[in-house]
Specification:
4-stranded parallel β-sheet, lipid binding, Hypothetical Protein Tm841, Chain: A,domain 3, DegV family protein with EDD domain, 6-stranded mixed β-sheet, 13 strands, 2 domains, DegV_domain_contain, Rossmann fold, about 290 residues, alpha/beta
């Protein structure tokens, strides 16, 4: 049987990596000044960062069930029998619900997975699934590998301000951070699909140093002998992200690759300019590796 891997645009897979892995991506929607766009198609992260800095209205919405169904049915028409569809946390978006509705409406065997994550922590699970397909794994094995990588990955991030998360209602189980904490530099993490407070620091330099330390600790925890994968995300903070990626390449000797990936418009709308994030995942063979 032929197996395909589907995800959504919040995985932020570099385009050449998604193409090489034959991963099919369904875009989230981002509205700027009331005009809706498809993430990664006709709106960029820099567009959103500029709009946020100018206090222009920015909002996000999930892909419709019809958008997923169109992708699933197109794959079926190409001869695909089974689909593993991996998406961002249910706690952050209704995207997963759209995929589930579409899956129930099509003829193929579609396995919809809540990654309980976002960004490259989810993206590495997608690549692991695509690699397993290349290796001839069964759909049960592909699903298990994707779930295992997503469940064990770590995400840590720093935001210049919690204001954007507060506005979008994405503060998760961290309401205690709102208020006086808006003036600090918070470090956050993802737990069970929720955004959780991790630590508070007073300066950006201390926050970046702590991200480096946390990534190194996560790499030691996750490495079972095959190494780990690391990604550094940023929104409108390229120089800081480049320096952190360079530092991590030296500080995490077991990192098989350290990717520098810009956060896209949908997540950027909720975390704001200046955000830096690090994802660490157990190494699984990716397509073409």
């Amino acid at each position: 049987m032929t197996i395909a891997v589907v995800t959504d645009s919040s995985a932020y897979l570099p385009t050449h990596v998604a193409v090489r892995g034959r991963v099919f991506v369904v875009p989230l929607h981002v509205a700027v000044d009331g005009v809706s766009h498809d993430e990664g198609v006709d709106v960029s992260a820099s567009d959103v960062a500029a709009a946020l800095r100018e206090h222009r209205p920015v909002s996000t919405s999930r892909p419709s069930p019809g958008a997923f169904l169109e992708v699933y049915e197109d794959l079926i028409a190409r001869g695909v029998d089974q689909i593993v569809s991996i998406h961002l946390s249910r706690q952050m978006s209704a995207t997963l619900a759209s995929a589930e509705i579409a899956a129930a409406s099509c003829d193929a065997d579609v396995r919809v997975i809540d990654s309980e994550s976002i960004g490259m922590a989810m993206g590495f699970a997608v690549l692991a699934a695509a690699g397993a397909v290349d290796d001839g794994a069964t759909v049960d094995e592909v699903e298990r590998i994707a779930r295992d990588v997503a469940a064990t990955s770590h995400t840590y991030f720093y935001v210049d301000t919690l204001e954007y998360l507060r506005r979008g209602g994405r503060i998760g189980r961290a309401p205690s951070l709102v208020g006086s904490a808006l003036s600090i530099k918070p470090l956050l993490t993802l737990t069970d699909g929720y955004i959780e407070p991790l630590e508070r620091v007073r300066t950006t330099s201390k926050a970046l140093a702590r991200l480096k330390s946390l990534a190194r600790q996560a790499a030691v925890e996750l490495d079972s002998g095959d190494g780990v994968d690391v990604a550094v995300h940023h929104l409108d903070a390229l120089e800081r992200a480049e320096q952190l990626a360079e530092d991590l390449a030296e500080a995490v000797p077991d990192a098989r690759r350290v990717l520098l990936v810009e956060l896209g418009a949908a997540v950027g709308a909720h975390v704001g300019p200046g955000t830096i994030a690090v994802a660490v995942a157990p190494r699984c063979r990716a397509p073409g590796a």
